[in-house]
Amino acid sequence: xxxxxxxxxxxxxxxxxxxxxxxxxxxxxxxGSAEPPRRPGRLRLEWDAGWLQVEPGAAGxxxxxxxxxxxxxxxxxxxxxxxxxxxxVLSGSPG
Length: 95
What we know:
The chain is an alpha+beta fold. Helices cover about 25% and strands about 30% of the residues. A four-stranded antiparallel β-sheet has the order 1-4-3-2, with helices on one face. A hairpin with a 2-residue loop joins strand 2 (about 45) and strand 3 (about 50-55). The chain is globular. The termini are far apart.
């Protein structure tokens, strides 16, 4: 297994992005828990294979960091970036 991490600016508030990520799992690049454990007081979701952290940004924006473990495969970094793009669209962000 190899660890991969990517971040993306989200043109939606951190609370909104977090709520969408917690409510849905169709943005993930692979199977994920339908209801991942939540960390009280933090905008962080965790799964067996990784985590998502959402931080507030300026003027209603945020930054999401996704960290996942994949079997060694060349396309994994692109899959993580695509997952963050899907999360941005689901959050109502223009992409």
